[in-house]
Amino acid sequence: MSTVPPRLRRRAAAVLAAAGVVAGAWLLEDGATARGPAAPPVAAGDPAADLGVSADARTPLARSVPVRLTVPTLRLNAPLVPVGLDAQRHVEPPPLNRPKVAGWYAGGATPGSAGTAVIVGHVDDDHGAAVFFLLGRLRPGDPVRVRLRNGATATFRVDAVRLYPKDRFPDRLVYAGRRGTAQLRLITCGGRWDRRDGYSANTVVFAHLAR
Hints:
Layout: E1 11-18, E2 21-29, E3 66-71, E4 76-83, E5 90-91, E6 102-105, E7 115-120, E8 124-125, E9 128-129, E10 143-148, E11 153-165, H1 171-176, E12 182-194, E13 198-209
Parallel strand pairs: 2-5, 4-6, 7-12
Antiparallel strand pairs: 1-2, 3-4, 3-10, 6-7, 8-9, 10-11, 11-13, 12-13
């Protein structure tokens, strides 16, 4: 993890796994804006009960490194950079000086290949909105596209968007996915923010490969 100025030392943690295999914890260090990030529905009771994850996922694509993420509903068009684990086995977030960049966890599936691909991004910083500030506005059926280095584009459809308190984050539900299918998760910080503990929750987008 790179050195962070004192005003940006605000951490939000969730356990990271890829295709159901725990890889470590990822930390997003975000500031806060006056209006706060977009808020999805809060998960209540059984977190799996209302996800509606599609069983009609398409045949997975060949593995290829992702280079760009586009979400038409949010007018989001962002470059992707690979992120890995630091010495504490925490997944490194995208660079703090590039808040409009999203990070793909390179230790897991590539978007569109079999397994669960994970993309993380900052929600905001001390200067304002970051790449995933509006993530909570996505709704089921919205498209998410990932362009791959081999020239293909993996198009996903959103199944659900949920807000999970950090102390009740459902690791296996978020990261495992259906066996043999291509799944995508977009993750950022959400919920309430305070100076001592940072954000109280994680916003998670569940999506499946549609074409």
